[in-house]
């Protein structure tokens, strides 16, 4: 079987939210699985010197016009979240804990977390909200809540973020196709062609 597509994303990334609705259809066209890898962009920003788009003059205003436009184009529900951006460490840890047990549940949870923030306006940076979302998709929120306090899971999450940075991940969404990096949701058509042609 071909290698999965690695999908790196930050739950506070609106472009990651759009990509989360589109990556699996692309992968299925090429008989690929997708490995969902949530990250925290803060450590990468410290290295790259970047800042959230919302904190950048001109770019932030453009983003809040562009993202709703993309969502209308692809039929994705969207409501501008407040507060923005937020730290989403509990949700990130939750995905890795779930992934080790049932990857399909992990993906369902990740999609639900994104929807809670960018469609329903819920503050997924709050652990209670992240756990409530788990319960809403049929997961054991109590067991998950206990797991979030496990030092091993905290180390695992930190290690995943550090590994992503070592690979060169600096934004969200970020993809790897057979080791080839693609940054940004606007690279999905290029990835589609790359997979169809076997690269160039």
UniProtKB/TrEMBL annotation:
Lineage: Bacteria, Pseudomonadati, Pseudomonadota, Alphaproteobacteria, Rhodospirillales
Pfam families found in the cross-reference section: DSBA
SUPFAM superfamilies: Thioredoxin-like (SSF52833)
EC number: 5.99.1.4
Molecular functions (GO terms): 2-hydroxychromene-2-carboxylate isomerase activity; glutathione peroxidase activity; glutathione transferase activity
Claim: Isomerase is one of the keywords in the record: yes
Catalytic residues, chain numbering: 13
Keyword Isomerase: yes
Group of enzyme by EC: isomerase
Record-annotated DSBA-like thioredoxin domain positions: 5-193
UniProt keyword annotations, A-Z: Isomerase
The protein's name: 2-hydroxychromene-2-carboxylate isomerase
PANTHER family per record: GLUTATHIONE S-TRANSFERASE KAPPA, GLUTATHIONE S-TRANSFERASE KAPPA 1
Family affiliation: Belongs to the GST superfamily. NadH family.
InterPro entries xrefs: DSBA-like_thioredoxin_dom (IPR001853), GST_Kappa/NadH (IPR051924), HCCAis_GSTk (IPR014440), NahD-like (IPR044087), Thioredoxin-like_sf (IPR036249)
Reactions it catalyzes: 2-hydroxychromene-2-carboxylate = (3E)-4-(2-hydroxyphenyl)-2-oxobut-3-enoate
GO aspect biological process, one term: glutathione metabolic process
């Amino acid at each position: 079987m071909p290698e999965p597509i690695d999908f790196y994303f930050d739950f506070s990334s609106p472009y990651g939210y759009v990509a989360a609705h589109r990556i699996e259809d692309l992968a299925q066209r090429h008989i690929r699985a997708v490995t969902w890898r949530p990250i925290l962009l803060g450590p990468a920003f410290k290295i790259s010197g970047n800042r959230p788009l919302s904190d950048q003059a001109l770019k932030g205003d453009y983003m809040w016009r562009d993202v709703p436009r993309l969502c209308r184009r692809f039929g994705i529900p969207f409501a501008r979240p407040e507060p923005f951006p937020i730290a989403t460490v509990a949700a990130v840890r939750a995905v890795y804990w779930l992934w080790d047990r049932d990857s399909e549940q992990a993906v369902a949870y990740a999609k639900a977390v994104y929807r809670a923030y960018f469609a329903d306006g819920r503050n997924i940076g709050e652990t209670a909200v992240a756990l409530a979302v788990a319960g809403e998709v049929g997961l054991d929120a109590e067991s998950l809540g206990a797991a979030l306090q496990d030092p091993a899971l905290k180390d695992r999450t930190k290690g995943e973020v550090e590994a992503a940075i070592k690979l060169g991940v600096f934004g969200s969404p970020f993809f790897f196709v057979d080791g080839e990096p693609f940054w940004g949701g606007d690279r999905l058509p290029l990835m589609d062609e790359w997979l169809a042609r076997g690269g160039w």
